[in-house]
Amino acid sequence: MARYAAMFEPGDLSRHDRHAHERQAARVTREAGPKKAARRDRMLPEPAVRGIFGPGLVKGGYWNLARPSIPAHQATSQQLAGIYPFVADAGLGHRGPILGVDLNADALWHFSPWEAYVADAGRATLSTNLLVLGAYRAGKSGTIKTLVARSIAFGHQAVVPSDPKGEWVAVAEAIDGGVVIRIGGGSAARLNPLDRGPRRSDADDEQDAQMVRQRRITTLVTLIEMALGSGHLTAVEHAAIHEALERCIAATGDHPTLRGVYEQLGRIVDDAGTDFRLSDGAVQPRFVLRRFVEGDLSGLFEDESTVAFDAEAPIVVVDTSELFARSELVAQLTQVCTTAWIQAVVSDRSAHRTRYLIREEGWRDMTSLAALQMFQQWLKLSRHYGISNVVILHKLGDLDAVGDTDSKERNLAYSIVGDIENKFIFRVNHQETASLRERLNLPATHAEDARRLRIGVFLAYVGQHSYVVDCFATSTEWEYELFKTDDAVRQDDHVDGMPVSIRPDDLDAFWPEHPDTSLDGWLAATGKEGSR
């Protein structure tokens, strides 16, 4: 209920007396009114510091209603443009594993190619494939290993069809359930690149047979053209290979092998039947396949597979480091065989499994027109099979090894790489900046920034957005030690991590007893050196 107070005062009071009278009336009015409840009675915490601001954020979790007196910030328009709070991108969200720190937003950066594919319209990408480009020791392998290792917890599988350096072996062995398949180097493991693979549940019998037949033909033609290295096969040679494959499929009950195709080519040479021209067309392919049956690649790919792909393993690595040490051609042939074997298994949509397909030295998958066409097909079908092809290149100039200048093969290789929408660009050399602008259509400022990136930092292009990400800023000590790949180039003055000390006596042995201070004397060998 409201209370009103009336105050009467004489008209002849001085100013001093009038103020005293007003203070007395205010005191009487205040004492007559209701008493103010204590903070405890009002269910409020006691203030941490006495004053008008109350507990603030120190205790109680709320701000006092009293407004502090803070002067307004003053700056020039140039300074305000630099601290504008909305220049940082919102990022890709929080779905998927943490891959690093977004240096522009100073926030954790999550990435998953499948999450980016199904994201909102403004953030969505058109494919799940990823191009990784950067110079040596720029942090490419460590970043991709970090992505793969952290993605396993999200149910994704990682497959490395060919590990030419053996650096993924340590990762597979460190992850519980990881599988390593070693080829060559005394191992008895064999892979049949013509394996049929699992039956596709999303295709009828005719469609499935057509896809399997096309993959087998492409694998055979790629191997033979790559081994010849002298251009394309003729129409008659193509026909001979087709005929030999069909005969091998019929003779083995749909279990063809390179040895079986080699034997059927031999029968075509001896008796081509009604078409005598097949005999001439079968000669050259047969000599090429002889290398797999009786030559330096025997015991690896010519017979039925002795190992099986573990679809439940979190990571599967095919270690081909022993074969890659022989020659570049052997390395390319090996990569074609192992990739064909892996693709025959992972191209099963009914498995409902998302997989990373890590293509180390990705240019080796594009060394012929047939290989390029097969590679392009697999990139297009990646969404269909739930695969993310991770193509790793040291520089775009690696594709210059594909075909001749301005040839169909080289232009197709550059076109395939340029069409990969998701890109991780690490530090590049000076000569690479022009290729980034011309081949990948990167802005000139981005290409210049790529020259100055430190190890583990990369420019990420996901859909229509770009980011600057530091991967190693979130790496644990275990990850960093496991994923680093430059142990072989450490200085020789360290043994087991400890510096080697030099004794004074050893150093004194190189100092002359009677030094000759002339130029000839300093250049001449000392007596102590000669006595050693």
Account of the protein in words:
It comes from Microbacterium candidum. InterPro entries: P-loop_NTPase (IPR027417). With 532 residues, the protein is of the alpha/beta class. Helices cover 39% and strands 11% of the residues. The protein has 20 helices and 13 strands. Helix 7 (235-252) packs across helix 9 (277-293). The longest helix has 24 residues, at 205-228. Mean pLDDT is 78; it is low at 53-63, 488-502 and 525-532.
Radius of gyration (Å): 37 Å
Strand order of the largest sheet: 2-1-11-10-9-3-8-7-4-6-5
Number of helices: 20
What is the averaged pLDDT score?
78
The poorly predicted ranges are 53-63, 488-502, 525-532
> What is the 3D form?
elongated
Cα(first) to Cα(last) distance is 112 Å
Question: How many E strands?
Answer: 13
Helix and strand composition category: alpha/beta
Helical content stands at: 25-40%
